[in-house]
Backbone:
């Protein structure tokens, strides 16, 4: 598979090395980080309108707080990029950005 030379492409290449099965539906976690904590209730309401499984993770000693949502789908570069772009655009007015994701293989 030929993905762009960016951080998302790098993650997908590492998954190939581990034998990840790109033909199966998996849970893909996406994080939304906010400039200020906690996020405004309006931000969470809007995010929940687009994804019904939103969870908030409070800040801890070694990490900032964030919102997490999961998509069940076949993992593709286009899905990752479009989801991050769409959610970042949606959350921008609240100081939020979606730049990280992960799967458990």
Residues:
């Amino acid at each position: 598979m030929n993905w762009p030379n960016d951080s998302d492409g790098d993650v997908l290449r590492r998954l190939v090395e581990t034998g990840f099965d790109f033909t199966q539906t998996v849970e893909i976690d996406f994080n939304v980080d906010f400039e200020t904590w906690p996020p405004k209730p309006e931000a969470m309401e809007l995010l929940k309108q687009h994804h019904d499984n939103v969870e908030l993770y409070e800040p801890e000693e070694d990490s900032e707080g964030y919102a997490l949502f999961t998509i069940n789908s076949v993992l593709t570069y286009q899905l990752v990029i479009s989801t991050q772009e769409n959610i970042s655009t949606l959350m921008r007015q609240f100081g939020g950005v979606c730049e990280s994701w992960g799967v458990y293989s």
The longest helix spans residues 77-91.
